[in-house]
Please model this.
Amino acid sequence: MATVAVTDDTFDAEVKNSDIPVVVDFWAEWCGPCKMIGPALEELSDEMAGKVKIVKVDVDQNPNSPAAMGVRGIPALFIFKNGEVISNMAGARPKAALQSWIEESI
Model:
């Protein structure tokens, strides 16, 4: 399952109302570290399909969701479970670190 692009309009439906945990990646096209973790998140989305959903929110196109979450820098990653934030992380990390963080959080 590939990552899902989420907008301000679809954020609640895709993230807060999801029946499985959701990793939200707040990113932008111009962000180098965001591009570094993109392929790892795509791979994890496939490898962890059914256990967790990974979504991406482009902060330039969708300013309301990151503002509501208090995002000040990107990449910013949040894990939602049952509609609530249970963990967050800022900055790029290697795939193994991202996977460990997700598995420990969910």
Observations:
- The two ends are 18 Å apart (CA to CA).
- The mean pLDDT is 97.
- The first helix runs from residue 11 to 16.
